[in-house]
Amino acid sequence: MFSQISAQASKLVSLTKRKNSGSKTKVIAISSGKGGVGKSTITANSAYLLAKKGMNVAVLDADIGLANLQVLFDLKPTKTFFDYLEGGATLQSILLKTQYPNVTLIAGKSGYEFSSLNNCIVFSRVVEDIVALNRFDILLVDTGAGINEHVQDFLEIIDNIVAITTTDPSALTDVYALMKMLSEKKEKLMLCFNNTLKYETGEAITKSIINLAMKNKLNRNFMVEYVGNIEESKSISSTGRLRKLFVKEFSGEIASKQLSLVLDNIINNIR
């Protein structure tokens, strides 16, 4: 369980933070309680917008077994971060340039058999080594959906966590489970609502989630920060199928502008 991480892994996390304390790279995990809420699409488009805002951005596809960011960036990687962890590739060789300036992808691998790399200590190494390069301003880590052990492994070593959800009842139930898990070890969760028509809708639901957490006596020092909403748009799904980014192809659309505002709020909340 997340709350029962081994003493060895906890020690490594502490050492990692001290080792990379001088790095300029800020790490942000993009997660979700439920699949199908647009997490990877938001991650890819966020990388492009952050680069447009003047940042050098790396994206780590940490969706173990279901990696798909190479599709959104229209790349065919020959090496993944698993090859690096297994000693079959150098760190530099897995830093893949995308067609977008100042956006680098570190690819994962779909259907990968990861039993030999099945612990937090191993997974933390790739994050630690990317941060230690002191090359990127932002490292976005696109985790898998849900709260399985591999998602937990990555979230254990990252303090800035954004959860993507929709107003679907099952998505809200799952994001609350994610929030409950994180409240045991973390200080804060940022919450973004996708496919949500009004900003006020996400704001009201966030308040309800916080009230539910207080009622259930979750950690009172744990904060949930609402960072905004993104409206549903046909442009988002159409550009995804064409392996393009909607914020580039439809920069004037409300959804693109909303994601830009979400990112401004995230940047103001990270440390």
Percent strand equals 15-25%
Question: Largest sheet at a glance?
Answer: 8 strands, mixed
**Count of DSSP-assigned helices:** 11
Tell me the helix content: 40-55%
**Number of separate strands:** 8
With strands numbered from the N-terminus, the spatial order across the biggest sheet is: 3-4-2-5-1-6-7-8
Rounded to the nearest angstrom, the radius of gyration is: 18 Å
Mean pLDDT: 87
Taken in chain order, the helices and strands follow as: HEHEHHEEHEHEHEHEHHH
What does this protein structure show overall?
The protein has 271 residues and is α/β, with parallel strands linked by helices. The protein has one domain: Rossmann fold. Helices cover 43% and strands 18% of the residues. It has helices at 7-19, 39-52, 69-72, 81-85, 120-132, 149-156, 169-182, 199-215, 234-241, 246-249, 254-269, and strands at 26-32, 57-62, 96-97, 103-106, 138-145, 160-165, 188-194, 223-230. The chain has an 8-stranded mixed beta sheet with strand order 3-4-2-5-1-6-7-8, sandwiched between helices. The longest helix has 17 residues, at 199-215. The chain is globular. Mean pLDDT is 87; it is low at 1-9.
